[in-house]
Amino acid sequence: MLRVVLRSFAQIRELVGRDAVEVELPVRSTIADAWGELLVRAPKLGGLTTSTRVARNGVLAAFDDELAEGDEVAFLPPFGGG
Amino acid sequence: MFAILRAAIDPRTLEIAVASDECGAIVTFIGMVRAFADDGRRVTELAYEAYEPMAIAQFQTIAAQAQERFGRVRIAIAHRVGMLAIGEIAVAVAVAAAHRATAFEACAFAIDQLKARAAIWKREQYVDGAGEWIANTCGSGDGVDAG
Fold it and tell me: What is the mean pLDDT of each run of 10 residues along chain A (82 residues)?
């Protein structure tokens, strides 16, 4: 199993209920699988899937990227800075 | 200077950080909290949050790209997080260059890029108690990938 930390922000964080969740996933799991873990906890997130971008260890990544032990995955809604 | 700040931004601090003997111009953009949303609703306050390490790395990338495009420019970027009242400074970008034309262009480039790609989010709180996360309508307008 892999242990990874899932970070979420803004409207995603509000639906998840917290800004960081640690989960265990099978080896070779992808970022999409990690997103699936959050969907189980907060099904309403499904409506945000298409607008959500992802980062792995602080760098933009893709939903089909594989995870490694200790990764920090961040789910990023559309940006609103400035 | 690239910073995510919980306390008030002092633009002068950024200007001092970018000033140098080679630079005859400093242009500073200051983004303020407005009392009205784009749809006219009355705003009481804004909440900003950031994925801090990613946002700061993005500020550094934006500055490096500005240097590639505009040559010798010195850039400082600071963005506030937390609850902000009307009239407070949300973001400041200071750019120093040898001459003003370059400083103006590089400053516009940097704030456009920040709005398009920095991991920062804004929630508008309205006078009727409702609130909404507001996405930037990106388009840096110059074809640079928002990623």
Answer: 97 97 97 97 95 97 98 98 95
Report pTM: 0.93
Q: Which residues contact B7 (CB under 8 A, 6 or more apart)?
A: none
Going across the sheet that includes B73-80, the strands are B2-5, B73-80, B89-97, B25-32
pLDDT digits (tens, 9 = 90+) for B35-49: 999 999 999 999 999
Tell me the CATH architecture of domain A2-76.
Roll (3.10)
- Contact list, A7 vs chain B (CB under 8 Å): 51
Size of interface A-B (CB pairs under 8 A): 71
3-state secondary structure (DSSP) of residue B127? coil
Contact B78, B9 (CB under 8 A): yes
Banded model confidence at residue B137, pLDDT cuts 50, 70, 90: confident
All residues of chain A having their beta carbon less than 8 Å from the beta carbon of residue B136 are 78-82
Asked if B115 contacts B48 with a C-beta cutoff of 8 angstroms, the reply is no
Mark yes or no for CB contact A74/B51 under 8 Å.
yes
Whole-angstrom Cα distance, residue B137 to residue B22?
Answer: 36
Q: What is the pLDDT of residue B56?
A: 98
Q: Any idea where the domains of chain A sit in the sequence?
A: 2-76
For B94, residues 6+ apart whose C-beta sits below 8 A from its C-beta are B11, B14, B15, B17, B18, B26, B27, B28, B29, B75, B76, B107
